[in-house]
């Protein structure tokens, strides 16, 4: 099982410097190993079951962490290369949100007043 894991893991690399790629993959592999070992080390489990649990947790966990790390690197590079656009779009979204929030607060008071007036008129008409 270990040979299969290493065979599958071998072509995976992060889109960064090869030295950092090796260090990060080593850390991800170690984290996946520790988590799988702690999960498989529960009492009342036989050796074969422990082996199966260890590898069935370690492999998907490593690939999940690797995918998240790759996505993080690509997002960081995109933001780094398009910083002006990211800032402009973010500022536009923030300003739009603030304007709509202020508008909603202002019109909410008017809507509440209209609702109260309608209720009062309805009560007056019912009494008459």
Q: Kindly, what is the distance between the CA atoms of the first and last residues, rounded to a whole number of angstroms?
A: 86 Å
Mean pLDDT: 81
User: What share of the residues does DSSP label as strand, in percent?
Assistant: under 5%
Cα gyration radius (Å): 29 Å
Proportion of residues in helical segments: over 70%
General form? elongated
Class from helix and strand fractions: mainly alpha
Quantity of strands, as a count: 0
Helices, by number, come to 4
From N to C, what is the helix and strand string? HHHH
Write down the domain tally.
Answer: 2
Largest sheet: none
If you had to describe this structure to a student in words, what would you say it looks like?
The structure is a single chain. With 128 residues, this protein is mainly α. The protein has two domains: 1-81, no CATH class; 83-128. It is built from four helices and no strands. The mean pLDDT is 81.
Descriptive key words:
128 residues; mainly alpha; 2 domains; 0% strand; elongated
Short structural description:
The chain is 87% helix and 0% strand.
List the helices and strands and how they pair.
Layout: H1 2-9, H2 18-40, H3 47-81, H4 83-127
Helix pairs in contact: 2-3
